[in-house]
Amino acid sequence: MNRRLFTLVLIGTLIAVLGTAAGGGAVQAAATQGYDWEDGTAQGWSVDWGGDDPTSSTAVALSGARSLALSVEGREYPGFRSPSRLPGLTVGSLVTYHLYTPRSARLLQVKPYVTDKAYVEHFGPWSRLTPGSWTTLTWRVPAVPDIHHLGLEFDSRGWDGRVYLDDASWTKTDPRGSLFDGQNLIYGSHIGAWDMDGGTAISNATAAANVTAAKIRVIKWQMWKPPCELRPTDCQTEAQFNAAIDGIRRLGAEPLVGLPPIWDQQCATAPDPWSLAWQQWIIRTAGSRVNLYEMGNEPDHYCGLTGQQYHDQLWVNVPTLKAYARTLGHQIYVGGPGWSASDAPSLAELKVWLAATKADYLAHAQNRDWLPDFISTHTYLVTPTENDTQAHAQAAIDAWGNFYDDLQAYVNSAFAGLTDQGYPIADELKLADSEWNDTIDLTWPGNESQAWTDFYVHAMFAMLRTHNVWLSNQSTIASHTGQALDLLTTEGTPKPEYNSYKAESTTDPRNN
Hints:
Number of helices: 12
Largest sheet: 8 strands, parallel
Strand order of the largest sheet: 15-16-17-18-19-20-23-24
Strand content: 15-25%
Mean pLDDT: 92
Radius of gyration: 27 Å
Distance between the termini: 51 Å
Shape: elongated
Number of strands: 24
């Protein structure tokens, strides 16, 4: 055996090995990238050890007219690898290979691998290939540092010949984990901060059952008062904090916790001023129960901050907070700013903030902590000019969709070429509508109409889906004593907007 020496690291999981029939089209799934070798070249693939370089071939193909021919000799354990630093290939990516084996190759085996920055191979398990047919091999990329190459190693058990590889592909998987690949976090809602222990949505059994029935997946909540540990009077207790967090999790939802300041009483010179110590208390007390945080809430409206001031006064604490969480054994994800509107002036301020975070990232050796995990704004219809007719409401909703498109276009341009473990950073900066409703007027009677709320809620979710919004929070579940902003009454029973919401959230297959 002439195979070169290397360190063997056997990690990763073989997901599936299935015999498949030839046919079908080229790999074109939006979330995947890959190779089909239709251009007549090897597309940068080469031998890694123990054989000859692969070549494009017309002998057999799964789709199109060509595949990649891999020469296998019985005395070798040849390995073949892709070009280095494949775009979108990250830890957790699902890699799919289609391999054709001649009928004479009775005992041929293959195992996938990736190489890391030190050119150490990290292998999956051996799998038997089916003679005379195509075999699909699917493998999840394990946790390795700085992925360089994909590869396949063969054990031919004495057989000499060619194996054919076609339609090799991999998913673009967010390295932060499945939470950021989720497709159902637009089904969120909000518990008001003044419900210091979670309020009706948690403590009322009828309300809690209705929240669960509506499949609400993320619930926003914030602290109303400083913790008693930091200020012993006029404060919020740890028991209240824990009741809210644990209650949200019992409802089956991911908590999205706002970090102060979340209203005008928490601005720098207000009676309950925010502090880094307060923010750290939240992260320490929440522990592993909370993954998502939002830095601030309507800082433009409540504290009069511009995009630059938000960066200079609040966002600069985020890297410190993320590092602090890691010292406690937790990984947290922080977005913001929860801007009060979603319009052209708001976009201008968000651009200033995002440009500043990019400059921070570059100035700090591309430390990902300086960049937001999501970008959040709010969308409330104005009473009465935007919610007096369906036409006016639709125009406002369409304008928000255009706003999110413009925001995404800026992100794509400003962060082009920057990657996190091989994954485009522009794709990591998720869009979030962290508060929305058809009014901000508690006494507005318009959403007592089921026909109105059916129209409005459907239009909102359609806009959020169409314009690639990752997370959203209807505001609120039951924090306004059953008035216009609430989904539920004070008894926890459904209002028309709840019925409309549930009709959307429970019929979407992405939320099952």
